[in-house]
């Protein structure tokens, strides 16, 4: 029995090493004074200095975050409204059709979403810039928000709403004081997922971004196609720390909120 | 009451019409027209008559199948062992964390690792092998794609195995089943829903990893995803690109129908 445990440990450790080698490989060479990822020459912060003086990259970084915040916020509002509308549907058939349409973008490969949105924007005469990328990010984030909020609505005790009405609450009060607070955890995870969808997207953005606007993913892609540039390594260290911070915050908030459903909580971290 | 419902429904419905239905119709329309917007079937004729497209289609599926299979082979034991661990939450967090690093950065790391003077070739050199040309091959593409998908396979399988009552496994052992029999007739069938959702989560995205074929696979157009990107972004023949897209959508729906049927047919008999 102990032996079995040992095998488990070794196998899992091996998997973890495999998963982390590329990330630490990047970080390791970000401190090398060389020009490639073959041989570590001397320790240096030079690549970090170039990174923090690279105004273009910093602008892209800020725009990427602005894009993620804006798109996830709008997607959360529309998605939450959508979930409320779906849960209010009386006919089961309507519900199922709407949900099926909702899930189309969830199961489509990114290239298809990107290509069809590109055709869509061109057909409507919408220019390819920040606006088109923002619209696309809102569009592909809405379904996940709906899927996160809907279970909360289904679990909700509707006598709460009746009680509020009996006690003289008007529609707005019922909405803002009863409905929204009850489904808030769902809205929160929806917002969080939308945020990560947006930050992580490459393929869709690649199709619908014009010359004027670029996100971090697209920028990394175009740099990586030109070969190795240790400034990208420095950038990956910064992003790794950023992710650690983000995950730490998420973990802290969710484990505090629901200690019991612990393994589901971690499951929520997966995109 | 009615107006309030509409208030919630309208923005969402607008989204469905504009960003779900309309793009599908547009991509269909483009696939059935030529560059002067007149109706034609020639795109489909080209696709099915020209050997390269058919070969690419088979290639895409073969690669996606390989990626899914290798990922499953690595992930299943990992997920199983994970259920035996004490600090499951911590292990799980460590496995999920890499999925948060931008995909492009991970792909970029492999340009260094798989290069002629990279980590892998240095390792092989210790055994007197090398240098082997790994980067810019189909193998590199499959390797990196597998690496990226592993966490997405471990998680659903882990959740499925976790829900199996340990009593069932014990019962099987008490009744004299060998380790293999327990796996084959108890563990595997009971964890199948997890395996299936993992397969679905990996197979379809594997068809569209065009950035990996570009960065790691040596810039060759070997999958349908890369072909779509090529036709939309480089050669600017959107009609042909849309046609490949429609074929990909149809194949995808077929795959999903097939896997769904299987789940319904094979109910677990205990």
UniProtKB/TrEMBL annotation, chain B:
<keyword id="KW-1003">Cell membrane</keyword>
<keyword id="KW-0812">Transmembrane</keyword>
<feature type="transmembrane region" description="Helical">
    <location>
        <begin position="12"/>
        <end position="32"/>
    </location>
</feature>
<protein>
    <submittedName>
        <fullName>Spermidine/putrescine ABC transporter permease</fullName>
    </submittedName>
</protein>
<dbReference type="InterPro" id="IPR035906">
    <property type="entry name" value="MetI-like_sf"/>
</dbReference>
<feature type="transmembrane region" description="Helical">
    <location>
        <begin position="90"/>
        <end position="111"/>
    </location>
</feature>
<feature type="transmembrane region" description="Helical">
    <location>
        <begin position="236"/>
        <end position="258"/>
    </location>
</feature>
<keyword id="KW-0813">Transport</keyword>
<dbReference type="InterPro" id="IPR000515">
    <property type="entry name" value="MetI-like"/>
</dbReference>
<feature type="transmembrane region" description="Helical">
    <location>
        <begin position="61"/>
        <end position="83"/>
    </location>
</feature>
<comment type="similarity">
    <text>Belongs to the binding-protein-dependent transport system permease family. CysTW subfamily.</text>
</comment>
<feature type="domain" description="ABC transmembrane type-1">
    <location>
        <begin position="57"/>
        <end position="259"/>
    </location>
</feature>
<keyword id="KW-1133">Transmembrane helix</keyword>
<keyword id="KW-0472">Membrane</keyword>
<dbReference type="GO" id="GO:0055085">
    <property type="term" value="P:transmembrane transport"/>
</dbReference>
<feature type="transmembrane region" description="Helical">
    <location>
        <begin position="198"/>
        <end position="216"/>
    </location>
</feature>
<dbReference type="GO" id="GO:0005886">
    <property type="term" value="C:plasma membrane"/>
</dbReference>
